[in-house]
Amino acid sequence: MDRIKMTTPLVEMDGDEMTRILWQMIKDELITPYVELKTEYYDLGLENRNATDDQVTVDSANATLKYGVAVKCATITPNAARMTEYNLKEMWKSPNGTIRAILDGTVFRAPILVKGIVPYVKNWTKPITIARHAYGDVYKNTEIKVPGAGKAELVYTAEDGTEVRELIHRFDGPGILQGIHNTEKSITSFARACFSYAVDTKQDLWFATKDTISKKYDHTFKDIFQEIYEKEYRSKFEELGIEYFYTLIDDAVARVIRSEGGFIWACKNYDGDVMSDMVATAYGDLSMMTSVLVSPSGVYEYEAAHGTVQRHYYKHLKGEETSTNSIATIFAWSGALRKRGELDGINDLVAFADKLEKACIKTVEDGKMTKSLSLISTCENPVILNSLEFIQAIRNTLDSLM
Ligand code: NAP
Ligand code: MG
């Protein structure tokens, strides 16, 4: 069989620990036998980030801007323990944070659904994709613990020195204060990323805030979304038969629970933080959650939503058997290959990505899975496979689909 040829390289960002082990297995067993893989390789493993003073992370993000599509392995975000474990020069920042800052993106997370793993919400038969705004609000706040009676004001000083003041509260005793902000620029790119992703994946887009209570702050989010929709996206949405739908956040929560899924739910920063954990848990498992960073300029970076699965890696290092689920990482590869195929007009690559995903799902539905999946599956007699056996089982299924 001829291997599928690529024209533009994918930006490949390798990572750490157990997911780095899976990364190589996925390439060897599931990608290179079928595709003449063309990548520009960046080693984002912690050792190389340390050796390059984290320049490799910046370079990989810039390469993503250049080529348009990246696939990323999970990476360690250093903490105090990692400083000693890897003898680090500095506590390097989260690679995802660095990449997001350069690409200016929004992260979309969606569950992978398979028969036998039943969401806690029984009517959720299609995936719900959460898009979380990743800038500002309570995550960039300023707080004061008010010691006693006094007056609190909100003051804005323009560059020419003119002031706008609003009374927040006259305290007659101790209390608390919080200042939060956002920018039109950030909200606008968030909105564009959401609308383009909806067009891209042909799904409805829901957005919700508390604009009835927050008549300026939240209302601005609502207005910016509406304006961008009318000016730039309404006709595309109508052409595709998809809908943009705005409602109050409490109404949205009630509707989401009653829905069958199959839409994108755009959330403000805090709502997205909280709701993505709820949605992920309700669908079953973090190892079945995909994640893609979409920039307003239409650049894509695909990854798994989970981390480096450190505990499994230590077992692996001791020579013990692991049963780590590689599906979300495989879907990062298939997502990136499909997007590359779409952009470059390589239909075989798009079809291959579809088959690879189908093979993952069919393998699990046929009862072959990793340990963590067997614990949440309703499958009667699952065959529990180790990390490599599971990938090889997917390869067998894939061969039967080719
Ligand atoms: P994690 O790697 O997601 O693992 C947490 C636990 O979830 C695992 O110990 C495992 O449970 C289970 N799990 C996650 N993925 C799994 C899979 N594919 N197959 C089977 N089980 C899976 O999160 P963490 O332990 O909090 O973080 C480890 C490292 O990852 C940290 O250094 C963190 O900085 C990094 N991290 C990176 C990213 C990223 O690059 N996007 C995201 C999150 C965390 P059991 O051990 O009970 O089997
Ligand atoms: Mg959270």
- β-strand percent reads 15-25%
Number of helices: 14
**What is the third-level CATH name, the topology of the largest domain?**
Isopropylmalate Dehydrogenase
Text of the CATH class of the largest domain:
Alpha Beta
Structural classification: alpha/beta
CATH superfamily of the largest domain: Isopropylmalate Dehydrogenase
Instruction: Give the beta-strand count.
Output: 18
Shape: globular
Strand order of the largest sheet: 4-2-5-16-15-6-7-14-12-13
**CATH architectural type of the largest domain:** 3-Layer(aba) Sandwich
Largest sheet: 10 strands, mixed
Structural domain tally: 3
Would you spell out the secondary-structure blueprint of this structure?
Layout: E1 4-5, E2 10-14, H1 17-31, E3 35-36, E4 39-43, H2 46-51, H3 55-67, E5 69-72, H4 80-85, H5 95-103, E6 106-111, E7 128-132, E8 142-146, E9 150-157, E10 163-171, E11 175-179, H6 184-201, E12 204-209, H7 217-240, E13 244-248, H8 249-258, E14 263-267, H9 269-283, E15 289-294, E16 300-304, H10 310-317, H11 327-344, H12 347-365, E17 368-369, H13 371-376, E18 383-384, H14 387-401
Parallel strand pairs: 1-3, 2-4, 2-5, 5-16, 7-14, 12-13, 12-14, 17-18
Antiparallel strand pairs: 6-7, 6-15, 8-11, 9-10, 15-16
Bound molecules: NADP nicotinamide-adenine-dinucleotide phosphate and magnesium ion (MG).
Magnesium ion (MG) binds near residues 273 and 277.
